[in-house]
Amino acid sequence: MKLMNILLAGLLLWGAAACSDDDKPTFPEEPTYDMTGFAKGADVSWLTQMEASGKKFYNASGRETECMTLLRDLGMNSIRLRVWVNPSDGWCNKSDVVAKAWRAHQLGMRVMIDFHYSDVWADPGSQYKPAAWIGLSLDELKTAIADHTKDVLNALKEKGITPEWVQVGNEITPGMLWDEDATVSGATYDVPKEGVTYAKNEKNFADFITTGSNAVKEVFPNAKVIVHLHDGNNNGTYRWIFDILKANNTPYDVIAMSLYPGTDNWQEMVAACVANMEDMVSRYNKEVMIAEVGMPWDEPEISKSCLTELIAKSKAIEQCLGVFYWEPQSYGSWNGYTLGAFDESGKPTVALDAFNQ
Fold first, then answer.
1. What is the pLDDT of residues 254-266, one digit of tens each?
2. Considering the chain, what is the average pLDDT of its residues?
């Protein structure tokens, strides 16, 4: 037995000597991701619908990769998600938004929620009421806005997800929740559309934003409330709308812009947008950000130059919170959209290298 113990001890000593520091196996370091500071993000609201249709995403090496993980690896730290009230196909409803927000949250990414207050797209050409809200009185409309806002945000809260930013309305330059009856319309001017005119009521417009803003703060007091317009290069439009909100003491935290430059005029558009952001900071004492940007997917080098300049000049504005690309993961002319940043094979183009600077 003593001889056996001596032999075992010898083997252990030999093994320890054999496993010197030089011989220890090495493993690649896990990458670290900075999710703080300036927001570099993407609106990926189409993602679950694209996945359901069979779309897949690949990194530059051709390896299939979960989309949000891929965007994180490209330098993005934030995700933006739109909310529709009762969409006919279910995409972008409450449960779909929560599912996507959970995925972003699991990756440590920050979340922006974008309320459209519609069953369909809300943008400069379309600010239609949800079907269930048509015919409501003004007070009932405000209750519906508050209830919908809190319902979605509480669903996120139950999952442990705290959005950093919440938009109350999407590209609401022409107002929101249009109606032919001026007493319940939130249009910022008389909007002629499809044979009818949606009536102007600036007070309702401001009150609808106030209602949404108060609902956000009730659920998430520290979330930043965003008011978002299109044409970030058009300073006159921004002064017009935000003067209305100032006159009505409308509470909000951030002025957000969309910017979709052309390949032949991007330098002028970026310069005008940056000047507009600086004016908004000075005139209204608000923070600013780019909530949407996009360029033709098949001009990746020009897009990269534009995005690099836009991000750098935005970061130079102390009060600018970030830049978000709109649906960069779309490819193959998904839904007719050609301003994504992935190629026909489902790989990111060099345009997105701008987010890794």
1. 999 999 999 999 9
2. 94
Compute the average pLDDT of residues 175-186.
99
Question: Do 323 and 41 form a contact (C-beta atoms < 8 A)?
Answer: yes
Are β-strands 320-326 and 287-293 bridged in parallel, bridged antiparallel, or unpaired?
Answer: parallel
Distance CA 241, CA 230 (A): 11
d(CA 118, CA 132) in angstroms, rounded, equals 10
Higher pLDDT residue, 96 or 24? 96
Q: What residue segments make up the domains of the chain, in order of their start?
A: 36-356
Q: Which residue has the tokens 């196909």?
A: 89
Q: Are 208 and 149 in contact (CB under 8 A)?
A: no
Distance (Å, whole) CA 344 – CA 50: 14
How wide is the angle at C-alpha 287 spanned by C-alphas 82 and 210, nearest 5°?
Answer: 60
- Could you list the beta-strand ranges (E) of the chain: 39-43, 78-83, 110-115, 165-168, 175-176, 186-187, 191-193, 196-198, 224-229, 254-259, 287-293, 320-326
Active site residues: 171, 292
Q: At what angle do helices 300-315 and 266-284 cross, to 10 degrees?
A: 20
Please answer whether residues 356 and 346 qualify as being in contact, where contact means their C-beta atoms are separated by less than 8 angstroms. Answer: no
| Locus of tokens 């809300």 | 122
Contacts of 250 (CB under 8 A, 6+ apart): 206, 209, 210, 213, 227
Please report the pLDDT score of residue 4 as a whole number.
Answer: 45
Average pLDDT of the segment spanning 89-112: 98
Indicate the pTM of the whole model.
0.91
CATH architecture for the domain at 36-356 = Alpha-Beta Barrel (3.20)
CA pair distance 187, 313, nearest whole angstrom: 33
How much is the average pLDDT of 117-135?
A: 98
Q: Read off the pLDDT of residues 11-50 as tens digits, 9 standing for 90 and up.
A: 444 444 444 445 555 545 667 788 999 999 999 999 999 9
